Amino acid sequence: MVTFRVADLAPMDGYRLAAGLVVPRPIGWIGSVGDSGVFNLAPFSFFNVVGANPPCVVVSPLTRDGQPKDTLANVRQSGEFTHNVVTREVIEAVNATSATLDHDVDEFAHAGLTAVPSEMIAAPRVGEAKASFECVLVDIIAVGNGPMSGNLIIGEIKVFHVDDELLDGTRIDQRKLNAVGRMAGMDYTTTSDVFSIDRPA
Q1: Is residue 7 included in any domain, yes or no?
Q2: pLDDT on residue 167
Q3: How many of the other CB atoms lie within 10 Å of CB of 129?
Q4: Given this model, what pLDDT does residue 100 score?
Q5: Domain span at residue 162?
Q6: 24, 183 in Cβ contact below 8 A?
Q7: Does 195 fall in a domain?
Q8: Is the Cβ–Cβ distance between 126 and 84 less than 8 Å?
Q9: CB 139 within 8 A of CB 123
Q10: 4 domain-assigned
Q11: What CATH number has the domain bearing residue 77?
């Protein structure tokens, strides 16, 4: 067993350890709109759901070069975003939207995706996604400072859009969803190997 004290690590080494051990991670595929009206779409593997009343999600864009990522800047300005569920069918497009592009590039168009209007917010949804959430900003919390620091975006889900083939009432058929999770480096994992265990009484 090797022990690492965070104070002795470079930020990238801390990132590698955390990202390699906290797996698999759900992927936040976040749609937003810039102040010039350009659509932005980017994946983030520091993402999860918190609470159910109201249902909220959290996504954490990391700081790398001292400048906020487009997603963070857009959400700060607009107060809204979409999350589009990442499945095996769209993973190549998800990867395409991870590229660093100029601010004036429509990343939906860049990845060959359909930008579908949302019902309650201006940020578009991914038409090819099996499910999408419309979210409004609750808060942004800075976590740390400098390279590899995080910004915790908390969004309240206002609308769920779900492919009817996935649904049994409000339960989701996980096998039909076929979600993809993030591992470390260039690695991903599918959720096709689903198993069940009864909870203890």
Answers
A1: no
A2: 97
A3: 26
A4: 82
A5: 24-190
A6: yes
A7: no
A8: yes
A9: no
A10: no
A11: 2.30.110.10
Give the chain's residues under pLDDT 70.
none
Task: For residues 13 and 62, give the distance between their C-alpha atoms in angstroms, rounded to a whole number.
Answer: 14
Looking up tokens 């569920």 gives 85
How far is Cα 49 from Cα 140, in angstroms, rounded to an integer? Answer: 15
Nearest to 61 by CA among 74, 45, 77, 50: 45
For residue 24, is the peptide bond before it cis, meaning its omega torsion is within 30 degrees of 0? yes
Q: How far apart are CA 49 and CA 157, in angstroms?
A: 10
Whether 18 is in a domain gets the answer no
Q: Which residues are CB-contacts of 67 (< 8 A; sequence separation ≥ 6)?
A: none
Q: In which residue are the tokens 């067993």 written?
A: 1
CB 143 within 8 A of CB 46: no
What are the distances in angstroms from CA 35 to CA 19, 27, 78, 80, 108? 32, 25, 8, 12, 16
pLDDT at 146: 85
The total number of structural domains that make up the chain: 1
- The rounded distance, in Å, linking the Cα atoms of 129 and 99 is 19
pTM beyond cutoff 0.90:
yes
Amino acid at 92: E
CB 82 within 8 A of CB 125: yes
